[in-house]
Amino acid sequence: MKHLLKLTFLALLLLPAGLMAQKKIVAPDEIVLNVGEKKKLDIYVQENGKKSKEDVRAFSRARRSVYVDSTQTIEAFKPGEFEVLVIGGGSVADYPEGNRKSIKVRVNYPPISEIKIEGIPNTIYAGTPVALKYKVIDKAGLERADVQVTFSSANSSVASVSGFGVINTFKEGKVNITAKAENIENTISLNVVKNPITRIELSADGDQGRTGDVFHFNAKALDAKGNVIADAPIQYSFYGVSDDVSQSASGLIKQDGRFVADEAGTYTITAAAGVASASKTLRIVPRDVTRKIEMVGQGSVNDKHTSDLWIWEGVDGRDYAVTGTWGADGKAYFWDVTNPANIFKIDSVQVDARTVNDVKISEDGTICVISREGASNRKNGLVIIDVKDPRNVEIISTFDENLTGGVHNVFIYKNHIYALSAGQKYYIINIEDPKKPYAVSKFELDTPGHAIHDVWVEDGIAYSSNWSDGIQLVDVGNGIAGGSPKNPVQFASYAYPNGANHAAFPYRSKTGKFYVIGGDEIFPYGLNTAKGGVNMAGGYLHIIDFTDLENPEEIARVEIPYAGSHNYWIEDDILYVAFYNAGVRVFDLSGELMGDLRKQGREIAWFIPNDGNGYTPNAPFTWGAQLHKGHIFFSDWNSGLWSAKLEPEKPKETKIQSK
């Protein structure tokens, strides 16, 4: 019997390692739901052919469309095709087929319920076009952009209508216009009257400028007696000729008369109302803001990924930096950067985590807070550190309450820490006594499948980045909405269509405009986290005009081809942004903003940190940038901490006027 047991044991030892614990994820390949329907997922880990009690997690990649809660129940909110990822626990090595599986989720489109047509004028002047404003609504109450709408006119001699809902009027009379989608129709009656417009007066705030300068045109429609026709449907257009014959003279014009040119050249702006029109010509020259940028120094980290950074002046007057690490051993590094050409480590802390994603320093330079993700005990809270002496940093306390789902980002503002919890909300934690932190409130949206990535606090306003729910402005002490740290009050928001809002940074322009810049985070080719992995990102910066808080407008963008935005910094009308595989980019934000800033020649400089000794050699993947005392500091995922410097701004040309 002993020999039999020994042989059995030897046989087990000789088995391939993967056969010791044969695990696989059991989950359906596809689920079909209707909008509003819920279904309990039948997912589990199977070990050696039997159902295991091991934890299994499921999450949606489109949480506002389909959402999976903690009980593994999926709920459908929007129609379309989506993906739910199922991940098994334990070691990846135990799963010969991988420890994750994808479920295709198809949510059926509900039938159409109505076609709404809004803003119908009481009268239309003959000879002027009108674009119908319409929405297709289904029985789930959702606006549908995927439905084909057809239009028809009951009397084409009075007015015709295009397939895009643009009505062209020809003579006086009444006419019915019908919009149809599936089996739903909506018919409106229009009254076409005699056109009193005889001429257009057009004025502008200038006739020459640089690419990227915003011009304001004002058009007035007048009748034969010179009276202003206030309800005239004026339309703006432009025609341009570029100085560079190989390029078109592109630009952007808004129907309120704002215009910006991308290329140097001559542009003619026209305002028209039917047969009456007026034009003005602009002369545009290059913006000419480019400057050289030079690498100054590097603090190399080549044994693990580097995450975020923060630069500050210490209480001793010297300059310091702290950087986090990603997917490694829970370390944060402290650096002396007083001489940006000689960056060197001075201390480090190690905490129970795989990732220290975010690092922040208090306004007085005495307290550091770092985030934790991937802790062995799942208490993924935050760690508060005394940095009065950055060469001998000491952990003061930790805070884990309600933060077990992982803290991805944090912010310190006026003795309070704003800490993300489980990617859904943020808690506001009082640290007046950093040894005894305590939560005073939280902020969380109530939208289906809501999520959050980041929070930034400035002037008593918290700017949170909530993916599909967009940018949220919350009063936490500013007073604009009566909020405080104990009573956060949301007062404005903006969500852009791609739903990838990852970061937000406020910018009050010298023009009086109040912008918030929202950044995407998109990995269209996936993210290779392994040593040696090379990555490309996608997405760009959306510049939102929040001057009118009730009507924010997405007005401009910063986009780099074949690269994606991450974290950024704004100071003195200059934007410093990490664009992952495209390095650090520097942009001129002076003046009013509109259109594509890179096309307009607003890019001042760029620097790509290639490092042959990096964690992945020569694979730049910049994470964040910060300006400090005239130097640009930035972290790179594969190579650590860097510093660079812009050459001084070119002196403005002095014009000599003859007497």
Automatic annotation (TrEMBL):
<feature type="signal peptide">
    <location>
        <begin position="1"/>
        <end position="21"/>
    </location>
</feature>
<dbReference type="InterPro" id="IPR008964">
    <property type="entry name" value="Invasin/intimin_cell_adhesion"/>
</dbReference>
<protein>
    <recommendedName>
        <fullName>BIG2 domain-containing protein</fullName>
    </recommendedName>
</protein>
<keyword id="KW-0732">Signal</keyword>
<dbReference type="InterPro" id="IPR015943">
    <property type="entry name" value="WD40/YVTN_repeat-like_dom_sf"/>
</dbReference>
